[in-house]
Amino acid sequence: MIHYSEPLFRPPSEANNVIIQITHGCSYNACSFCSMYETKQYKQKSLDEVFEDIETLNKYYSQAHKIFLADGDALAVDTSTLLQILKKLYASFPNLRRVTSYASPINLEQKSLEELSTLYEAGLKLIYFGIETGSDVLLKKIQKGTTFSKMKEGLNKASQAGFKISATVILGVGGREYSKEHVAQTARLVNETTLNYLSTLQLGLQQTKEAQFYKKFEQGFTWLDDKEMLEEQLHFLEALQPTNKIIFRSNHASNAFALAGTLPKNTNRLIDEVKYAIKDESLLTPSWLRGF
Ligand code: SF4
After folding, report:
1. Which residues have CB under 6 Å of ligand 1?
2. What are phi and psi of 54, to 5 degrees?
3. CA-CA distances (angstroms) from residue 49 to 52, 204, 281?
4. Which residues, including other chains, have CB under 8 Å from residue 16's CB and lie 6 or more apart?
5. Residue 151: pLDDT band with limits 50, 70, 90
6. Model confidence over 204-227: pLDDT tens digits?
7. Ligand 1 centroid vs 36 CA: distance in angstroms?
8. In CATH, what is the architecture of 12-289?
9. DSSP assignment letter at 237
């Protein structure tokens, strides 16, 4: 029997991979827009339980190439425990090529370059990281528990350690009031780090989070409509000047208009596609067909 606890989330790109849950919930669990783990009390699973799960999953997926460590920020687990888990995984799955996990800004702050390098060498190859916004004003409002400089430092430390980074940005997270600030500071963060994958999704809020989210926007919060979301997307793409190759996607279930390309090579083509969609709203996926 596998010790999974629901709800269990994983990035879309991990849909076909083995999931080993090494924690329950998120060690931070305070972002005002996030309802993923609101029903879960954070807890680290015992090594015995994790090892038991690895052995059970190995019976069914012994040829697995990729494994995702859940839940919300598996990198919160202390480095020596993570190393024992990685060692067990690579010993159990002979074809394993990469292990991945979500990582929060706080996780990257707390781990030293040396620890991150050791984890990378042990086989943790890619982290999924929610930037959400690069704006300090908005980071405070959405209670992300970090700042522009701390994220920049953490992301650059992770890259230096060897990690590939897949990051997400939330369109519309500052409403109409902070759209310009959100675009400028988020693009600046992307330009000053070396992300490998970047995706944008549209803000969506579960009813249970609305009061907490709006409370910090003392002057009010005006939602962007789909056209305004696309305009924000457009300005964001225009402001990006990455120094490395980034695989860009905007194809989350929440997105009104899907985009895919490589930055900076396809930046102009992506910009043209967004401009086209802004002019012709019939190209947008109707909201009732979307989720978040
Ligand atoms: S760190 Fe991630 S999982 Fe945890 S509350 Fe924030 S957005 Fe949600």
Report:
1. 26, 28-31, 34, 36-37, 72-73, 104, 130
2. -60, -45
3. 5, 35, 51
4. none
5. very high
6. 999 999 999 999 999 999 999 999
7. 7
8. Alpha-Beta Barrel (3.20)
9. H
